[in-house]
Structure formats: structure tokens, C-alpha cells
What we know:
Pfam families: DUF1995. By secondary structure, the protein is of the alpha/beta class.
Amino acid sequence: MTSTKVSAAKTHRVRASAAPAERTMEERMEGRSTYAPESYTAMCMDAYASVRDCLDEGKTLIEVEFPAIPGEDADYKAASDVYIDANVQYALVVAQKLNAEMGKNVDVLVPDGIEYRRAKKIFENALGLSSAGVRLNVLDGRKSSMFGSAFGDMLGGKGLRTRKEEERDNDFDSADVFIVVNLSTIELESLEKFADETANGRPLIGLNLQLDTLRADLGLFSFPEKALHYRFLSRFTPAFYLRTRNYSRTINVSPFVINYSGAIFREYPAPWQVMIKQNNGVLACVAENEDRFTLAEAKEEMLIALGINDPDDSPMKKLRSGYKTSTWWEEECDDEESDAWRT
């Protein structure tokens, strides 16, 4: 009996000592030489620390971006429900930390009532275990469907008065911070309206919205205009940003094709960094800058670090890169109302 207690105590001490120590502000400002989070929970804690620093500095539009699921090219292999559920789970983890450590009441916003009812059912246990300061809510304010829920409650013995007392639409007054997940390009205009009219200065965190992917749709037929980026999306400060990419490079000697991968990384208040993925899976920093790297610049830094870049005056460099080396939103533009998304 005694040996069992000793064994349990030893196990507890090992687990406690394995927990990573809180990084000092000096360490956080310097950035990381390598990055290899032990789990998604650890990455959410890193994201929380950066969000906390942004909130302490009074920032109200904050971006958090990291791969929703692990694996090479995972973005193209998993079902959409996997991403939706994972992002809600990450948002709840960050929200619970904001509530526990900073005393913030946090609403996790999903796009509409359908997503709200689905998420509430799936994460019922997690919401039950969390404090009253963390809630699921709806970006458009309408939690119930127009007809189904009302008639369902009446037939089930619940009157409309009881329904309204349980779940009120447009119920945002108690929230100090909002975390929004799983939006499409079309819904970005609703997000802008929410930020300007409903949040009204309260911090709004976009978690894994893949804003760079959504920006690519702006200006296309039936999508919002590019001006949405210039006046609204440009105001988001990237607090925690990890965008991974896989590349290949042809060379004129064996093995003729070199596959490599890396990431653009930012952990506020540290500078932007370019990371290369090593054979052991650890991301190692090869370049850093106070301003955000474009995708082309990040790729070039990786090639330089690997020693397989083309010389600047090489015709092959121009053939590989082409005439245009940046996307429209990465280019400098006088219409851009803020450079927060770059710095």
C-alpha cells in the first residue's frame, strides 16, 4: 500500500517538473531559435500568452493562426467538420485561460444558429465544466432557427416565454472579449459590422480564420470587394501566427529534386521569423524581421539557408519566380488604413 502511494507521488512530481516554465518578457521579445510544441494544448497556451500581451497593450483586433490539425498537407485531406470542431475546441481552451488568468468573460462566436446548436451539443460537457464566464454565442445574434425551435418547444411542452429566458438572441452585453471561428469569406462583412457596431471597442480575436486564404477571394464575383482588407482586415494584429508550407526544388545533380518545408512564424511581441522544418520535425529559425515576410520572401530565405537559392542575376531566378512575386494584399497600397497586420 505504501509503495503504491510513493509511486503515485513520484509520477505526480515527474509530470509537474515536465511542465514548461513561463517564458520571461525578454525571452518573448527575442523570439524563438526553435519551435516544437509538445501538443496542441501547449500551442494554445503559447497563443494565449501572445493574446494576453496584445490585450495588455490595448489592441482590440487580434489574429491567431496555426494549423488546425497535424500532418503534412492536412488542410487538403480532412473533412470540414474536423476543422470546425477542432477550432471550436481551441477557442474554448484559450477562452477558459483568459477567464481563469485575466478574469475576462469570453464569448466564442460561431457563424450562425445551425453551427451554434451543433457546437453546443458536441461541446456540452466542456461547457459544463468551464466557468460561467465562457459561453458559445452566434456572430449574427440569432441562436434559434426561425420556425423549428419555436414549434418544437411548444409541442414539447415549453412555451415561448421559457425559451426566451433560456437563450436570448443578440445576447452580447456580458462579454469582455470575443473569439470568432469558422467564418467564410462572405461572412467577413458580418464580422466587420459586428466589430464596429456590437463589439464597440471590446477585443475581438479571430482564431484560425485563415485570413490569407479568405483575402484571395476578395474582389472576385459574388465576394466582398478588396477594400474590405484595406479598411478592416489590415487592422488585425497577428498575435500568434504559424503558417506552414511544403516546397520542392529541382537541381541539376542527384537527387535532382529536393523537398523541404518551413513556416512563417510570429509570437507577439517577438519579430516575424522564417522557420525551416528539420528532419526531427523541429522548426528552426533562419531569418527574422520586424515586418511580415511575404510568402515569396519566406521561401527565398529558406532556399538561402539550404544553400540552393539562385544568384540574384541568374536568368533561372527570374524564370522560377516570374514577373509578379507577391499577392495583391502583400503589396504596399495607399488605400491600406493600417499596417497592424504587417507589424
